[in-house]
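Lab meeting tomorrow. Look over both lines:
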Amino acid sequence: MKNFFLIFSLLIFIFSCSKSDKGELIGYTGQKFFPSQPSGMVLIPSGAYLMGMADDDYVQLKNAPTSTVSIKAFYMDETEITNGEYKQFVNWVRDSVVRDALAKRAIEELGSNPTQEDLDKDNSINSFFPIYEITEDVSDEEKGGYTLYKEANLDLEISEFDKSTYNLNFDNDIFWDREEYPDLSYAEVMEGLIPGEGFFLPKEESFNGERTFNTKKIEYTYTVFDAEAAIKSDSETRKDFFKEKIIPIYPDTTAWIKDFSYSYNEPMHNDYFWHDAYNDYPVVGVSWEQAKAFAHWRTMYKNQYQKSRKKNGLQVASFRLPSEAEWEYAARGGLESATYPWGGPYTIDAKGCFLANFKPNRGDYASDNALYTVEAESYWPNDYGLYNMAGNVSEWTDSSYDKGAYGFDMGLNPNVADSTNLRKVIRGGSWKDIAYFLRVSARDYEYKDEKRSYIGFRTVQDYLGEDIGINDNPNKVF
């Protein structure tokens, strides 16, 4: 028995010593971090490349002189963001907007400090009351320190005018069918106090009398930090540089008709975004601002999951649009001075098959086996595993367009981010473009508020931690 206690004491001593820094500078270690590859993304290794037009500039644009730039490693979507992926975003925002309206109505009826009995008395609109901690029957020992702090120092009343005072309840399903509305209050929220003012279009505005959700109400609200303004300002107050953005995020399906006069594109307008047949096709009709909102939502959505799994210290790096330099680096797939993502200089392979979806042969759209867009995972990927970096749809980048940008960009992760410049760079060419715009060096732009039937996007995420080079990249095809 004495030996047992002696060994136990030694183990305690050794363990306690191992936790001590012994007075030495050992640094803060924190949690061990292992980078994880996001779903649907591939790793683009760090490296340097010759950015710009290495072959003939036969249209004499003179907007892409060659220069060597270095790029840090990052993850990138292997395909353009699809209709199915964007619909997940749209549906989440739609449901949040409806739940918020139901919660506000419940606050009006129950008051800002309901009892648990009030919430449990029926299964009506009360069940959508925002998540709220009822503490009146809980002892101080059970409440915890922060709850006691809030009761002593903060205003705990829920306000329908202040979203920061409540959290939406996502546990209950929304009743969409009129026959399932549980009570009058619920119906008044969904249909409006006056018919036509709710979440659905009035009958006279609905196609063939079908019940249609008012897509103008699907707005995503989020806050960004304006670092550009903060750098130029002498203010030391952070709140001066927070900007709230409210972005209507439903795609403009009428782009299929507006972009092409005297052309019958009504079937694409009617079916392309909402029909399940097109779920795996790239989303189009989204502006630069909508693409940025999607990236913000994707970050928030993943971090909410991390928090639910008690991984608060492992917040993910933000998803975002790629810079112009990152996009070109990824599109080249490690090929130096190549014309296209697959090399080139031809747009067909040895069997005479086209290698991308574009406008070949003086306008014979169908000769590449597609009249409009194709599924996002079509044709051969480049050597980094990225699909359709040339053709299918052009892609928004985070960069502002300046014809002379390559002349003053620095060589390390160059980017022109000018909030006053409404022209944003798009790259890659699309299904309606000629082969010239499929070149990895070809630059083009569109105004950030425009929504086109031939412009989509893909997102990137920074690779955190120890950098990774080309020779370490598991996606590289040799």
Remarks:
- Residues 101-217 form one domain.
- The CA atoms of residues 383 and 477 lie 5 Å apart.
- Residues 10-17 have pLDDT under 50 and may be disordered.
